[in-house]
Amino acid sequence: MNLDTRGPAIDTLGVLETAALLRELTAGLISATDFDEALNQLVRIARDAVPGVAWCGFTALRAGEPAGVTASDPRLAELDDLRHGSDSPAMSAIQRREMVIAEDLKQETRWPAWIGRARGLGVHGVISAPVDVDEQVIGAINLYADSAAALTTRHQLTAMLLAEHAGLLLAAVRDRAREAAQAGQLDSALLEEGVIGQAIGVIMTQRGCPAPEALDVLRSAASSLDIPLREVAERLVITVSRPRES
Predict the structure, then answer these.
(1) Average pLDDT, whole number, for the chain?
(2) Does domain 193-241 have CATH number 1.10.10.10?
(3) Where are the domains of the chain?
(4) Residues 238 and 195: beta-carbon distance below 8 Å
């Protein structure tokens, strides 16, 4: 679909409103602790911040996992649940890699089964824009209207901006989660490793602290002395194991 962005259509976008939306979106998603929470924030913010949008949803396809659906209203989640079939605006947007719009579902002939469910839930218009997150996740953000012709050129432009911005933010959330998981795995390995594990045990005994805190103490010492973590651990273990002079 070609979107004509010339002339007064651009003026209707509302630069200040859009900037506020993207700022709120950034704050909401960056504060999320995981991907699913970020999706919940995304659909809530988009629903509340975009005039004329009654509901918002996100359809996510993750490698090796069933398709997931997040919606600002739980009733709307079933609209893009693939158990009802994959013929939907969201899947069309994902498969074609372009925005899909249906301004009036009464006049729409695509996705007949989906339209029946949508109209039964009070949906009369939809825009679905594809969202590229990373090599493992793709999706679509879905803006729903409760009246025909409520979705305008402004909403198309907003959907494009939302999709682009959300993709970048969601990718950052997933990167942060991966890094946290890797750090946790590394810490677990260090806690179990020979001399480092012994040194951590010594610190736990001396300070009466848990293992993660003892590991932080060991890391801080290594950073202050500018020597490898293992060497600090070895020095500590040798020191405490050395027989005291009588």
Answers:
(1) 83
(2) yes
(3) 8-177, 193-241
(4) no
Cα–Cα distance between 126 and 119 in angstroms, integer?
11
Q: Which CATH class is domain 8-177?
A: alpha beta
Single-letter amino acid, residue 63: A
Q: What are phi and psi of 57, to 5 degrees?
A: -135, 165
Tell me the per-residue pLDDT of 118-144, one tens digit each, with 9 for 90 and over.
999 999 999 999 999 988 999 999 999
Contacting residues for 150 by C-beta, under 8 A, at least 6 apart? 52, 103, 124, 125
Structure tokens at 205: 């005994």
Alpha-carbon span 246 to 235, nearest angstrom:
22
pLDDT for res 193: 61
Average pLDDT (163-192) is 73
Q: Is the dihedral of CA 156, 157, 161, 162 positive or negative?
A: negative
**Helices 194-207/211-225 angle, 10° precision:** 110
- 181-225 pLDDT, tens digit per residue, is 655 555 555 555 677 777 877 787 678 788 778 888 888 888 888
CB neighbours (10 Å) of residue 41? 22
Torsion angle defined by CA atoms of residues 50, 145, 170 and 153, in that order, rounded to the nearest 10 degrees: -60
Other C-beta atoms lying within 10 Å of the C-beta of residue 125: 26
Q: For the ranges 21-25, 109-113, 204-208, which has the lowest average pLDDT?
A: 204-208
